[in-house]
Amino acid sequence: MNFKLTYATMFNPPAEMHTRFDAAMAQLNRSLGATHPLYINGEDRIVANHDTRRSPIDQRRVLGHFPLAGLDDANDAMAAAQAAFPSWRATSMSERARLLKRVATLIEERVYHIAAALALEVGKNRMEALGEVQETADFFNLYADDFIRQNGFDHPLPDDPLPGFRSRNRSVMKPYGVWVVIAPYNFPFALAGGPVAAALILPQW
Predict the structure, then answer these.
(1) Which domains does the chain have, with CATH numbers?
(2) How far apart are the first and last CA of the chain?
(3) N or C, fewer C-beta in 10 Å, the chain?
(4) Is the pTM value of this prediction over 0.85?
């Protein structure tokens, strides 16, 4: 479909957009009610405690049973991300940008399914849900392009005007490394698996 949904174009979409959203919603409805694991260091992890989540659209509709991560789970996720950080930091600027753009492509390929999950989880209408998912993909592309355009945010600055002394200055964005992020709401359950702690590698920009 030669149509890109954004907040600016959502007021007059083609009929195919509704057809594809309805199909994605029907497929998603068939998968509701499952029990989900955590995902840490590339592997599923079964936990003892889960939280049953219902749709705000219809409280009778059980979205699924999502894992309640504990302190050890958060620490393990942090350790896995910390171990991966050096290789990510050593990855070339162009390759990091390529990988982030690949994320954007994958989101766009799944835009209807992710939007359907978003609508069921937080009660958004289909137009806002589709616009928000597309915006997420656009942000990945925007930040990757900015990273390349700004040369990795590494810029020479004017030397200090000191007599008899040469001072060379640069502006370099500092990589902080790994953080644990708690996402309690407004995050599609199909992506996040519920309100769990996730350790993220923050890129060097």
Answers:
(1) 15-158+169-201 (3.40.605.10)
(2) 35
(3) N
(4) no
